[in-house]
Structure prediction request, 591 residues.
Amino acid sequence: MPDRFAAGHSNPGEANGRDFIRDLVAADTASGRFGGRVQTRFPPEPNGYLHVGHAKAICLDFTVAAESGGRCFLRFDDTNPATESPEYVEAIIEDLRWLGFDPQETRFASDYFDQLYDWAELLISQGLAYVDDQDAEAISAGRGGFGQPGTNSPFRDRPVPENLRLFREMAAGQHAEGSRVLRARIDMQHENMQMRDPVMYRIRHQHHYRQGDRWCIYPTYDWAHGQGDAIEGVTHSLCTLEFRDNRALYDWYLEHLPTDDLGHAGDRPHQTEFARLELTHTITSKRVLRRLVEDGHVDGWDDPRLPTLRALRRRGYPPSAIRDFCGFIGVARTNSRHAPELLESFVRTELNATAPRRMAVLRPLKLVITNWPTDDDGNPLVEYREAVNNPEDQSAGTRQVPFSGELWIEQDDFRLEAPPKYFRLAPGREVRLRAGYFVRCIDAVTDAGGEVTEVRCTYDPETSGGQAPDGRKVKATIHWVSAAHAVPIEASLYERLFDTELPGERTGDPLDDLHPNSHEICTGVAEPAVTDIAPGQVVQFERLGYFCADNAAAGNAEPSSSAPRLFHRTVGLRDEWANIQKRRQQQGAQR
Ligand code: ATP
Ligand code: MG
Prediction:
């Protein structure tokens, strides 16, 4: 059955294809503002792994460029030697490709350090930058606050030659870390705090993963970002709302630099801000994600409970579903949070169409068919039953599933005493076995503790076609696995990593809201054809949900046949988003 919600919606991002950024790009193209060019960039800092929030920025940057026949570069914003590493660079490149995007070029802000240095000297020589000997605390205090003017640094009026000499000494490693900074000389009274003589360079006697020990001064984000855009010929520099106040500074730097010499047609690059993507019940702060990984709250950056792209991939989220989700939520100018159920709804829609079906039992209970035929030696016969691989996709064909006198069924599908509205198996009750026969429970074996250890049934050979010739109905169809043919599996089931909607809202620390039992492993069984599922492929275990075969198996040259295959539950079958929508509508109607 198609996903009710997703089947019925149209995608505003794509169907209407309009938002304020696309309107802006269209207007700029029409007016010839950037010489008719459109160029964007996705600028991650290589200090962590990409997460679902980045996916929104990526989709926007790349599709806005592609829609106008423009270009989008990947630029590593690698100006902070302390936290960056090649491990993250490689992971970001890989994740971007997995998400389905291919940058025209890959650049590094650190490659622009020489140009930035020259430009810094230029600003110094024009009296637009100065070396400040105050420490970080004094600089911060001198900035003032909102509605409270700043005070000029005692070093603000240093003569140009002295500034140049000190700056060169800083670059040559002659000054201690933290002893001086280079600041732009703008306006300590400016109402925008970003404009109160922002820091351009800090002294860091640190090794840079690409530049080695060449530099001991490192540019700040603001001093590097717009200049990187100008060097590359970016037209539309799209970033998230927290940079709104930095835009004035972005413009100020570019106005005071000879960017016309860079050889790109049209105007200087322009920054436009859009809202971050946040999901409830999770966090997309790289700092918090790193704590989760490093403190062992999760099993690495690809732990399927994380919102990182590699975790979503390991969990079986199709990249197209993530792109569709990003298109659907669109871009706006105000921050908002989305329920993860909405993203899951896109994942389910895609997997419903593509995932092959198999039968697996996660909490096995033995079912014995007492009237099942045996051969001359008394061994139960084996019959191969035909099962449809994907009811949504005829071309996926059918497969043969072995059926015999001893089966595994789910513990949940049997009750000694059936509660009201429980229509599955119970003493005296008849149900249909999927792709099998009708079976009627005649007895149940219990252990000393009263736990059911075996369900005994008779089957009706006349119901081979899934219907009874006499027209009698059953109210439930359950899944099963032939015990003699069962393949051992392990299924990892995941709950939300955080059990509050806004992790950290209560105490300020998101880790206080960690869900104590967000991961459960079931040791179960599956039909033989589960071995067709390739590592990384998603299967629908009938009635249970979508599960992704773990990739680690791919690393084993000879996967031992007895070791259980590991599956991660991608999403359940029920569309929780549709329920949320319904609840919201009902609440709306009551108001
Ligand atoms: P953090 O502050 O956690 O380190 P960041 O936003 O600084 O994250 P970057 O690697 O600098 O991470 O981000 C690269 C790009 O992705 C930036 O343009 C940023 O605006 C965008 N981005 C990051 N997080 C989100 C998000 N949640 N939603 C949309 N865009 C995002
Ligand atoms: Mg950043």
Notes: The pocket of adenosine-5'-triphosphate (ligand 1) is lined by residues 43-45, 53-54, 56-57, 77, 239-240, 276-277, 284-287 (CB under 6 Å). The first strand starts at residue 39 and ends at 42. The chain is about 30% helix and 20% strand. The domain at 3-279 is CATH 3.40.50.620 (Rossmann fold).
